[in-house]
Amino acid sequence: MNALEITNLTKKYKDFQLDNLNLTLPSGCILGLIGENGAGKSTTIKLILDMIKKDSGTITIFGKDNQTDIHLTKQDIGVVLDDVGIPEQFTPKQVGKIMEHTFANWDNALYERYINQLQIPKEKIFKEFSRGMKMKLGIAVAMAHHPKLLILDEATSGLDPVVRDEVVEMFGEFTRDESHSVLISSHIVSDLEKICDYIAFLHKGKLLLMEEKDILLEQYGILQCTQEQLAQLPQQAIKGKKVLPYGVQALVQKEFIPDGMDVLPVTIEELFIFMVKECA
Amino acid sequence: MKGLLLKDFYMTIKYGKTLFLVVLVFWAISCFDDGGSFFLVYPMILAGVLPMSLISLDEREKWVQYSGTLPYTRAQLVSSKYIIGLLLGVGAFILSMATTAGRMWMNGYFSLLEFGTIASLLLVLGLLPPTILLPFVFKFGAEKGRIMFYVVIGLATAIGTLLAGFGFQMQMQTNEFAILFVMCTVAVLLYLGSWCLSVAFYKKREL
Question: Distance, in angstroms, between A88 CA and closest chain B CA?
Answer without folding.
Answer: 7
